[in-house]
TrEMBL record:
Gene Ontology terms: cellular component: chloroplast; ribonucleoprotein complex; ribosome
Taxonomy, superkingdom: Eukaryota
InterPro entries, per the entry: Ribosomal_bL33, Ribosomal_bL33_CS, Ribosomal_bL33_sf, Ribosomal_zn-bd
Gene Ontology biological-process annotations: translation
Keyword entries, A-Z: Chloroplast, Plastid, Ribonucleoprotein, Ribosomal protein
Compartments (UniProt record): Plastid, Chloroplast
GO molecular-function term, one example from the UniProt record: structural constituent of ribosome
Family to which the UniProt record says this protein belongs: Belongs to the bacterial ribosomal protein bL33 family.
Chief location category: plastid
Protein name: Large ribosomal subunit protein bL33c
Length: 66
C-alpha cells in the first residue's frame, strides 16, 4: 500500500542574485524554474546552478516556498 505523503514533490527554484537586488517578488524580473525532487534523498532545500535570463549568466537558484 502507498504511504500518505508523496516521495517526489514539485519545487520552485528562484534566482538568488535577482532576489537579493531588491526586485519585487511579483514582478516577472526574477528567473524561476519548476522541477521535482525526491524528499527522501534531499530533505534539505535544493540549490542548483541554472541560467538566469535576467542576469544573463549562470547563477545559483534556490528552492522557495509556494
Amino acid at each position: 500500500m502507498a504511504k500518505g505523503k508523496d516521495v517526489r514533490v514539485i519545487v520552485i527554484l528562484e534566482c538568488t542574485s535577482c532576489a537579493r537586488n531588491d526586485v519585487n517578488k511579483e514582478s516577472p524580473g526574477i528567473s524561476r524554474y519548476i522541477t521535482q525532487k525526491n524528499r527522501h534523498n534531499t530533505p534539505s532545500r535544493l540549490e542548483l546552478r541554472k541560467f538566469c535570463r535576467y542576469c544573463h549568466k549562470h547563477t545559483i537558484h534556490g528552492e522557495i516556498k509556494k
